[in-house]
């Protein structure tokens, strides 16, 4: 009997997402149900955004939840390397095989040419998906561009007709998808790095993955993956597309409307058992419909067919209620004390704070009110906190906070000097004095401008909580509408271009 092998392949490009934990949980439970193996693979082919700090955050957050993998970059295994950036030769070799078989081609089209092609298709009322016949240049033009050393990508050949591709799904049965919507997907980028589509198909085969449980956003990519399996002559793993997590308003779960970083929930003081329990309830239920259950109980009773296809709602209020049950029902007072000490009142967390506040202390009881913001969650802010601490109009403060948030979301290394450099640069670009620029950020992070250095505060709070507080502050000041967001995005791009 073939060993069941499942995997997740997260990208180390930011805070570890609860959606990653949700997919990991279901893959782990499915593997354990069949006495199989669960593999963690790192998809770090985006070299401009991927970094080892984010990779370590993935390891730490999944382990904090209690999700352990059998093979991966940090634990090894028989099918490594488990980082896609270390498997470049494998992808090049398989791309060359596809070219030799006539299933892929080198595409020298420039970005400008691609835009013209897509616009032409739109004007004709056609789907924007570009086919090989649209993209292929005459042989002499290909030879000319190749001789000039022009950059190229490798694209896969896809059907030109309007037929259907039938994809089998463990939950949905047969799914019919139109070939007309499938473009000649890039397999290898101009920098030699593979796209998700090539890397995951090749890796899943070479790592003997038998079942691919992933989010339903990948359904439309399934025809490309099925085609690649056919081109290579490989058996395709069984597919299972899990429903996406949703905000309470039914929109796709996003950090603008809900905290999505796993580390945020750790920093807020949630119990990992409760967070995992809540994720287990996202579209799945125990046979007895019990709301509270452990990971071991989920392993014992797991059945993929009990997954509901309705979009599960990730509601922080309900998560808090469930976490309260875990705190009250599963911890003795002594255990609760140990958890509190482990969560916030440990030397690693206290020492940086004490170093900042010791010069301000007259009696030890001064510490609690002064440093409370470093150990709490979301601050109880009002618009008046901003207007009384900043000279800037509220609307300008919102713009400033949104720009700062975007800049900090792109920050690769969360260090005091790096944070300061980004904020100073942004204040210069926005032509706002640094002191005035930092005032709304001070209030967002500490609740007041009368506190320790906001750079030190953000360093101690960490990226997940700092960014969450900035988002919270934007909401307190009225938030940003979709229309306003588009204007801000354009203004921010102008700043970036002129920087």
UniProtKB/TrEMBL annotation:
Gene3D superfamilies documented for this protein: 1.10.10.350, HUPs
Listed GO CC annotations: cytosol
Residues noted as binding ATP in the record, renumbered to the chain: 255
Major location (coarse): cytoplasm
Keywords: Aminoacyl-tRNA synthetase, ATP-binding, Cytoplasm, Ligase, Nucleotide-binding, Protein biosynthesis
Sequence motif 'HIGH' region, location on chain: 10-20
Molecular function GO terms recorded: ATP binding; glutamate-tRNA ligase activity; tRNA binding; zinc ion binding
Protein name: Glutamate--tRNA ligase
Originating organism: BD1-7 clade bacterium
């Amino acid at each position: 009997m073939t060993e069941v092998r499942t995997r997740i392949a997260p990208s180390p490009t930011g805070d570890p997402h609860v959606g990653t934990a949700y997919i990991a949980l279901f893959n782990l439970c499915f593997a354990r149900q069949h006495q199989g193996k669960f593999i963690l693979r790192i998809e770090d082919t985006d070299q401009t955004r991927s970094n080892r700090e984010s990779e370590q955050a993935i390891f730490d957050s999944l382990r904090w939840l209690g999700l352990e993998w059998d093979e991966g970059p940090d634990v090894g295994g028989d099918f490594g390397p488990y980082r896609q950036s270390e498997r470049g030769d494998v992808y090049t070799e398989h791309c060359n095989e596809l070219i030799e078989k006539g299933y892929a081609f080198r595409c020298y089209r420039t970005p400008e040419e691609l835009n013209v092609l897509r616009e032409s298709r739109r004007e004709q009322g056609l789907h924007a998906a570009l086919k090989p016949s649209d993209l292929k240049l005459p042989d002499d033009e290909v030879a000319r561009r190749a001789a000039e050393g022009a950059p190229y990508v490798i694209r896969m050949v896809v059907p030109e007709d309007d037929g259907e591709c039938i994809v089998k799904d463990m939950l949905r049965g047969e799914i019919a998808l139109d070939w007309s919507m499938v473009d000649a997907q890039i397999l290898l980028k101009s920098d030699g790095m593979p796209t998700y589509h090539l890397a995951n198909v090749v890796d899943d085969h070479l790592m003997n993955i038998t079942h691919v449980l992933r989010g339903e956003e990948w359904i439309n990519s399934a025809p490309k993956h099925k085609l690649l399996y056919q081109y290579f002559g490989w058996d395709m793993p069984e597919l299972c597309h899990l429903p996406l997590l949703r905000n309470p308003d039914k929109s796709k779960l996003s950090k603008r409307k809900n905290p999505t970083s796993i580390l945020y929930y750790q920093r807020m003081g949630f119990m990992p058992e409760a967070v995992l329990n809540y994720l287990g309830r996202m579209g799945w239920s125990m046979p007895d419909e019990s709301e509270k259950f452990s990971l071991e109980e989920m392993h014992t009773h797991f059945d993929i067919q009990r997954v509901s296809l309705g979009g599960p709602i990730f509601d922080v209020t309900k998560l808090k209620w469930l976490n309260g049950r875990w705190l009250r029902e599963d911890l003795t007072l002594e255990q609760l004390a140990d958890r509190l000490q482990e969560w916030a009142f440990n030397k690693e967390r206290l020492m940086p704070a004490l170093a900042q506040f010791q010069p301000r202390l007259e009696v030890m009881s001064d510490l609690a009110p002064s440093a409370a913001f470093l150990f709490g969650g979301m601050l109880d802010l009002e618009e008046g906190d901003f207007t009384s601490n900043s000279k800037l109009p509220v609307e300008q403060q919102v713009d400033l906070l949104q720009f700062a948030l975007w800049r900090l979301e792109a920050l690769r290394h969360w260090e005091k000097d790096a944070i300061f450099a980004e904020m100073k640069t942004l204040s210069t670009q926005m032509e706002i004095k640094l002191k005035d620029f930092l005032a709304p950020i001070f209030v967002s992070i500490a609740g007041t401008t009368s506190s320790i250095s906001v750079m030190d505060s953000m360093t101690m709070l960490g990226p997940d909580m700092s960014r969450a507080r900035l988002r919270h502050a934007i909401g307190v000041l009225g938030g940003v509408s979709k229309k306003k967001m588009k204007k801000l995005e354009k203004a921010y791009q102008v700043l970036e271009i002129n920087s």
